[in-house]
Design brief:
Number of strands: 37
Low-confidence stretches: 1-24, 936-945
Shape: globular
Largest sheet: 10 strands, mixed
Strand content: 15-25%
Helix content: 25-40%
Mean pLDDT: 94
Bound molecules: zinc ion
């Protein structure tokens, strides 16, 4: 473009924006230069609204432009968390309409803050307004007349959450400007918002990731303005454990980000929890296509639709194209950050705007199906090429946020009353409909896991009580000590959602994420619903925290036995007792009238053992029995392995949850990078190498991030102070490469145990570290959904899919150490993964009648899909094409050289949820040596191996 043409275009932009800003009734004065700078940073006039086309001026309150020396969304700049916080505090210090609170600290120690914005009167009454929403949240304590009075005197509280996903960079910039505008503008619309609402803003909900992303941008992306030339737009980590899955933590609260939002929720009881994301053009305001989750109050869905259509209408009316709703994901699983609102009688919602990992302006072309006119997208995004800037993103997000606030400020009492009604509906359902409660027997196989379930429910705001005397109900008699969830409580709906199976209809389309989150199935615990309203008359003691499980050491003697009842804590116990010899019984035995199943521990007399056992029993809630002499039973030694966890730079997300689970249990492991694999000598360092699920194709698992982008250092430097944690690298490109694959082969051949989970199992099975296992057609190669083939196959069984379901399995080798602590038939949680066939001695290598597939070699199958006695496959969730999965291997144990590969066809450490599945993995680690040296399985003498 010529200078002359550029000048012409710029003048059109300026002119248009100035007209927008200087509306005749506008009471605001304008920050000098802001109109021009915003217009210049906006690529087309239609991507700007009059509401955000200027910064209102204030004599007293510091503007983001004055503080940052630029407008929010300026090209080529991103604000880091410390600066965002400094501006937030400067804003609060200069405006009586803004306050700042600290609601948490990140894994790396950064603060997580919250701004509260209202008019002066609102700020002075914050405590009273919080007390009002807290009272409305509990209809048991607030009758209808009181509620009406509170509705009249209270205010809806609207919470914005920014920067959860770190490469979605516009929301922090947007929220700083929104906070300022809400504090100083005298536009009637803004005054109405300020006087009728309290607006909460968390400007950087994941500050560790924000700062890594900002460093990444300035190091690798700044100045690059051609989309096709951009390297990877995100650093490999967004926090100690998290990448994109930080938004799958609503039921667990594993991440500090989530814990901070829960703290905010319980303190403020906001009516809306609004999470800001950036992935589709130009602004999509969330409402799923269905199926919807029946345990969320219909009012929440209808309120959300109402707000979304208000946004579509308002921005469309301003001539801003590409604002739409509905056709994105389902509304079935509420496990995302905004779900904290939906699950607690508030509203959870979100945007996807057209953001960039970079703050540079790029040229885009959308696909044809993104630009059609539809009822849910009356004004589609542009077809053909268009340029999109960071400021365009701010313009859309901020204008829509103002529209949503405007809508609630028009009817504040309605939204506040609805909040009360949702709690009322939930509580009343628990009073008048079965089930009236759930009973959780405390004496189930692993009492610690029972306590973990109770702790999780309490952390989610669900009230749990404990029977002080036996509870007699139509379902039976439950002893004192049984945990009871009475359902006459405001969060009854959430309790039912978590404690009962889900059913995703087969013809309901393609789910967006997990279709089961049933906690009893995840924890392998019995939780019994009762249809007997007498549960409310039981003698129950409310619990503030889950009681610690008392361990015990009984008996006399210097030999200690530990009965295996499926305790999840055995891995931690093994490492805490690492200086002691332990033998593990391979068969059941009976001592002193007690049955000890296979897998039970025998600790021979050793110096210092008694004190250590007492300490472990108390710490981990385990029960040991002291005896004079070890029982006569076949047993194997269980030395502590040197454990390595390989985390490929190309995908750290799912293995982040695995590392989290290991850290929670204080398991020492070595973090293994791609370059550590390439460096070799693996057997010198590790006995067990664990490779978790990765959402990568086989070639990407081997070759990693493209070398063409390298070298890409991920390390702490003066210019990139936030990079290099939790692991550091001179160059994250190139993966392990062929040489690394050879080192893995050498590790196994020389006597190492390689354990692979989920799609990580493709590496040994399809990469050829072990042979004879064929990848079958008809599976989905990765855990995530929405792929073309899978979507096309929705509602039929052509493609086997189990997108996050609880499924029955049977142990083909119930004597294998992986089976310790489990019945012969049980269940596990499975997402979408490839399908693998039962191993054969060899697979055909050429077309010749004498060298077709070898005979089946099923000895390596430890666990198989399906219930051998024919019970239904699905416990909770849904499965498609299950006939092609049932009978196939769920866990393989295959020898190679002097080592073994254990390949899971599921992920036993899924997002810290399926705690009942974890023992299978823990068993493989604890019994690594027995697996390597165990009784020979499989091939007849002379077979090639
Ligand atoms: Zn996102």
């Amino acid at each position: 473009m010529s200078i002359r043409a550029l000048h012409f275009l710029t003048s059109i932009l300026l002119c248009s924006a100035v007209l927008h800003a200087q509306s005749p009734d506008g009471p605001d004065t304008v920050v000098a230069g802001s109109v021009e700078e915003i217009a210049q940073a906006t690529t087309e006039p239609r991507f700007l609204s009059p509401w955000v086309s200027y910064l209102p001026a204030s004599n007293d309150v510091v503007s983001p432009r004055a503080f940052l020396h630029r407008i929010p969304g300026a090209p080529g700049e991103l604000v880091r968390s410390s600066v965002a916080y400094a501006y937030s505090r400067a804003l609060a210090a200069s405006s009586p309409r803004v306050r700042v609170f600290t609601i948490g600290h990140s894994e790396e120690g950064r603060e997580i803050i919250l701004l509260a914005i209202a008019d002066e009167a609102g700020i002075q009454q914050l405590d009273q307004l919080k007390a009002t929403t807290a009272a409305l949240a509990d209809p048991r304590k607030t009758d209808a007349a009181t509620a009406e009075r509170l509705v009249a005197s209270g205010r809806p509280i609207y919470y914005f959450n920014a920067a959860l996903h770190s490469d979605e960079t516009g929301s922090t910039e947007t929220m700083l400007e929104l906070a300022y505008r809400l504090a100083v503008s005298e536009q009637p619309q803004i005054r109405r918002i300020r006087e009728n609402l309290v607006v909460l803003i968390n400007p950087v909900s994941n500050p560790d990731g924000r700062d890594k992303q900002v460093d990444w941008f300035y190091r690798f992306l700044r100045g690059k303005t051609a989309l096709e030339d951009l390297p990877r737009q995100a650093p490999p980590y967004w926090s100690k454990y998290a990448f994109v899955d930080i938004n799958r933590d609503a039921h667990q609260q594993a991440h500090e980000t989530t814990k901070a939002v829960y703290r905010m929720f319980y303190a403020w009881h906001p009516q809306v929890v609004h999470d800001l994301h950036e992935s589709v053009a130009l602004l999509m305001t969330w409402n799923g296509t269905g199926p919807v989750n029946e345990h969320v109050d219909p009012l929440s869905y209808s309120e959300r639709l109402e707000l979304s259509f208000h946004e579509v209408r308002t921005l469309g009316g301003m001539g801003m194209p590409g604002v739409w709703t509905w056709n994105f994901g389902d509304d079935f699983a509420h496990l995302f950050l905004d779900s904290i609102g939906l699950n607690h009688n508030s509203m959870g919602r979100g945007y996807e705007t057209f953001g960039n990992g970079t703050a540079e302006t790029l040229e885009h072309t959308l696909s044809a199906d993104e630009t059609t006119v539809d009822w849910y997208r009356p004004s589609p995004p542009p077809s053909g090429k268009f340029r999109w800037s960071a400021r365009d993103n701010v313009n859309y997000m901020e204008t829509a946020a103002l529209a949503a606030l405007e809508r609630i400020a028009q009817e504040p009492h309605t939204f506040l009353r609805n909040f009360y009604l949702k709690g009322l509906h939930s509580w009343q359902a628990g009073l008048h409909e079965a089930p009236y409660g759930f009973l959780i027997p405390d004496s189930q196989g692993d009492p610690t896991r029972v306590a973990q379930l109770v702790a999780r429910l309490l952390a989610l705001g669900i009230e749990v009580q404990r029977a002080a005397a036996p509870v007699n109900l139509q379902e039976g008699s439950f002893p004192a000590g049984t945990y009871v969830v009475r359902l006459d409580q405001p969060y009854r709906n959430y309790a039912v959602d978590l404690l009962t199976p889900s059913h995703f209809a087969k013809d309901a389309g393609e789910p967006y994420d997990d279709v089961s989150w049933e906690l009893p199935a995840h924890y392998h615990l019995d939780v019994i619903p009762t249809a007997d309203p007498q549960v409310r008359s039981a003698n129950l003691t409310p619990l503030a925290t889950a009681p610690p499980v008392a361990g015990a050491v009984s008996g006399q003697g210097s030999v200690y036995l530990l009965r295996d009842t499926g305790q999840e804590g055995l891995l931690e116990a093994r490492y805490r007792l690492d200086r002691f010899r332990i033998r593990i019984a391979q068969q059941s035995f009976n001592t002193r009238g007690l049955d000890f199943p296979a897998g039970s521990w025998i600790l021979p007399a050793q110096a210092g053992l008694g004190a250590a056992v007492h300490e472990i029993a108390t710490r981990l809630g385990l029960g040991f029995v002291a005896v004079e002499a070890a029982p006569e039973v076949p047993a194997h030694p269980a030395p502590v392995p040197r454990l390595g966890v390989w985390v490929p730079w190309a995908d750290t997300d799912t293995i982040g949850w695995l590392r989290y689970s290991l850290d929670q249990r204080h398991i020492p492991y070595l973090y293994v990078r791609d370059e550590d694999i390439r460096a070799g000598k693996l057997r010198d360092k590790y006995d067990v190498l664990l490779y978790g699920h990765v959402d990568l194709e086989l070639a990407e698992q081997i070759h990693g991030i493209p070398k063409a982008w390298g070298p890409m250092p991920f390390k702490k430097t003066a210019a990139t102070p936030s990079l290099g944690t939790p692991a550091s690298s001179e160059d994250i490109t190139g993966g392990i490469g062929w040489s690394g694959l050879a080192e893995l082969q050498r590790f196994v051949d020389s006597g190492g145990l390689l354990i692979t989970l989920g799609s990580g199992s493709a590496l040994p099975l399809e990469g050829g570290i072990v042979r004879g296992v064929r990848r079958e057609l008809g599976g989905v190669p990765r855990s995530t959904q929405g792929g073309g083939a899978a979507a096309a196959a929705a509602a039929n069984d052509a493609v086997t899919r189990t997108p996050g379901s609880h499924l029955r399995v049977s142990f083909a080798r119930p004597d294998h150490p992986i089976a310790y602590g489990y019945p012969a038939r049980t269940h596990v949680f499975r997402q979408n993964f490839p399908l693998y066939a039962t191993p054969r001695r060899w697979l055909r290598m050429a077309y010749c009648t004498g060298c077709l597939d070898g005979p089946l070699d099923p000895g390596g199958v430890v666990l198989e899909w399906g219930d051998r006695e024919g019970r239904p496959f699905v416990i909770s969730g849904q499965a498609w094409g299950e006939a092609n999965l049932i009978g196939r291997p769920a866990i393989l144990d295959l020898p190679a050289g002097r080592g073994h590969v254990i390949a899971f066809n599921f992920n036993p450490v899924h997002r810290d949820l399926n705690r009942g599945d974890q023992r299978m993995l823990w068993n493989a680690i604890i019994n690594w040596q027995a697996i390597l040296t165990g009784p020979a399985q499989g091939p007849a003498p002379g077979a090639p191996r």
